[in-house]
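Typical record is below.
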Amino acid sequence: QVQLVESGGGLVQPGGSLRLSCAASGFAFSRYAMRWYRQAPWKEREWVSEIWTSGTTYYADSVKGRFTISRDNAKNTVYLQMNSLKPEDTAVYYCNVQTQRGDYWGQGTQVTVSS
């Protein structure tokens, strides 16, 4: 079955960096676009970034220029490098894939930006 396992979250000071990873299994990873979403307390889940099979990337305006998404098809892993973090980036970050069989999510990883 499809599994997405996020890691790399934690507590970081404003201006700091983190790299999130999402290890995928149970589907042909290289054939699908991969996405990152986040959900802050008392807010709806929002799209953050995506990377297509071609390597084309897209970002929400709120993270453009600070976050970089990438993928390693040999490792079935997608990454989110987050730099210049701000308190408003605090959220649970989720990995997502949409396949013909359905829409799948990981369990999420907590990112807290605070001094």
Q: What stands out?
A: Residues 39 and 45 are 4 Å apart (CA to CA). The mean pLDDT is 97. The chain is about 0% helix and 55% strand.
